[in-house]
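Ticket #4471: structure export looks truncated?
Reporter: QA, pipeline team
Priority: medium

Steps to reproduce: submit the single chain below to the structure queue and open the exported record.
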Amino acid sequence: GGGGGGARGVGGGGRGCGPGVRGGVGGPPGEEAMGRSKDGDEIDELSARVIAEAPEAGTNPLLTDEPEVEADGKVRFTRARRFAELPISRRTLAGLAKGKWEKMTDVQRATIPHALAGRDILGAARTGSGKTLAFLVPLLELLWRNRWGPLDRLGGLIISPTRELALQIFDVLRKLGHRHELSAGLVIGGKDQHEEALRIAPMNILVATPGRLLHHIDQTPGFEVSNLKILVLDEADRLLDLGFKQTILAIINELPKKRQTLLFSATQTCASRRHPKRVSCGASCYESAPSSRASH
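Actual output as written to the record:
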């Protein structure tokens, strides 16, 4: 099957692959020019903040009661407890306000600052921990800071093991990204393949289940994954349990090697092709560099 009806950018429309219509804030040409200028200034400012405020690799703010720890002039733990304290765009903040998401959960505090800094993440987080925002916020911010547009095609890819979970992710994405000028599609099966093939190529973000995604990579003309900036594997342990290992490997083999990868699992048994920062948030939380682990 495939995606459903048209989606009007990230924040609008129905579920499914949309026609690539870009959403966002409209207005007279003068206002649009001013908006682009403000966006450019904000991108420059926040890009600098992301670098300056990036926590030291292999650290976890959940392991200290201190508001912030610095060593040799470098931030080791972010003081941020609320989304508004992070170096993220006003567009994403508007989506967070719409969803009434204000305070970060443990997994969000532990992962988002590292992910904003462009690091790969391997996170163990149970359902209901807030992991969906933990990967959607960095995904939207990465594309926004890269000034992603229609001609750039697919920049963010989220792979989910089930239709139900993919629908939930897409609903959160539509709310969180309603102010971003990005197109998004849902590819989960159950619709006409030909119709979906006509709609999928211009998408900037896709939420997909593995089988139909691989079909489009192999069979759909004009569907390009060569520009992909960020890959998210959600509930990776379930992807493997449900027999998708070979499909996932085939998909990853088609993706550019230079990309950011965020992998979330309910367990810590899934391995990545590189050396991510590990984060576990359940009864206890820890994060470690590949060679060490701290826990409590």
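Status: closed, not a bug. The export was complete when the record was re-opened. Leaving a note from the reviewer for reference: Residues 29-53 form the longest helix (25 residues).
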